[in-house]
Amino acid sequence: MACCSDRNRAIFLIIYGMIGVVVGVLVGIVFLVLPELSNQHAGSWGFVSAMFAALVSFYGVLRLSFWRCLQRVTLLFVVVGATGVMIGSLAFIVYLILGITDTGAKQLVETFFIGCVWCFMTFKWSMVLLTNSIIDDKREVSIF
Questions:
Q1: Which of 22, 40, 119, 141 is 20 to 30 A off residue 94, Cα-Cα?
Q2: To 5 degrees, how large is the angle CA 111–CA 114–CA 116?
Q3: What is the pLDDT of residues 47-95, one digit of tens each?
């Protein structure tokens, strides 16, 4: 990220992560609570996506405020991010196959494709966490 400073990147991660938390929690609530939009798969993956978005936001806070603590736990964020990438991509493929092979005539809300979208969102948040923690692990420089 040559276009912005490390401080701006940390602020971006915080704001971007908080938006993801709000959207993921709202999707989870909508798909699990409202009976006309009932899709347990999408609701569950919405909450998982919100969890990874919260980790991205937390990583931004650590990056901004507690850099010395972050240097010690960067490997933990790499492992969590890599695990999320594997789980999100595997679930994305499974839901995509299930959505294609499901021949029942349903509304779009009841299909596996909505769950597929939120598996991809989980993949996205874990990839953001993984790439930022790998970049910081390689650089090991202070932002101040």
A1: 22
A2: 105
A3: 999 999 999 999 988 888 877 666 778 888 899 999 999 999 999 999 9
Q: Show the tokens assigned to 57.
A: 């936001």
Q: How distant is the alpha carbon of residue 5 from its chain centre?
A: 23
Q: Give the chain's end-to-end CA distance (angstroms, integer).
A: 17
* Whole-prediction pTM: 0.86
Round to whole Å and give the CA distance between 17 and 9. 12
Is residue 72 packed enough to be buried (19+ CB in 10 Å), middle (13-18) or exposed (0-12)? exposed
